[in-house]
Design goal:
The chain is mainly beta. It has a single domain, classed as Metal Binding Protein, Guanine Nucleotide Exchange Factor, Chain A (Beta Complex). About 10% of the residues lie in helices and about 35% in strands. The protein has 2 helices and 11 strands. It has an 8-stranded mixed β-sheet with strand order 6-7-8-9-4-3-10-11. Strands 1-2-5 form a 3-stranded antiparallel β-sheet, with no helix packed on it. The model has no long low-confidence stretch (mean pLDDT about 95).
Length: about 140
């Protein structure tokens, strides 16, 4: 499935080819601060996405193994990208709310579940990983 999306003001637009409809929910404290809640994020291989308005993208190395990016005009969060070598190197993890059409998406995994606020329980069955299992998934040492 192909999807299009944009930041809040439209200065950054993108097209994703052959999007996997499964997304994940990240409960880490950094995502809570960045997104204001859990990050509901798509995993997008770098070779399947095309950006317009790249001159408006700002980046920040938010950890030893990943960066975050946002629209430099109005501040919308755009992605979390793994920069360290490993199975997800270069993959974008993008908020589903950036998509023009979110139909057909499936919440398939929750990560950093041991950092999830007590009152934030999501209904449904899916894979749930604590911090250690999440870091192992991304191939990152604690």
């Amino acid at each position: 499935m192909d999807k299009t999306g944009q930041c809040l003001c439209g200065a950054v637009r993108f097209t994703i080819r052959d999007l996997n409809p499964e997304f994940g929910t990240c409960h880490c404290k950094m995502c809570q601060r960045w997104a204001g809640s859990a990050l509901l994020g798509l995993t997008v291989p770098a070779d399947t996405i095309r950006f317009e308005g790249e001159e408006n993208i700002k980046r920040y190395q938010s950890s030893d193994w990943a960066e975050r990016a946002w629209c430099g005009k109005r501040g919308s969060g755009l992605w979390y990208q793994v920069t360290a070598e490993g199975p997800y190197h270069g993959y974008y993890h993008m908020p589903i709310g950036l998509l023009d059409d979110t139909s057909g998406l499936i919440n398939a995994r929750e990560i950093y579940t041991d950092a999830k606020p007590d009152a934030f329980d999501l209904a449904g069955e899916r894979e749930r990983l604590d911090t250690a299992a999440t870091l192992a998934l991304f191939g990152v040492a604690e």
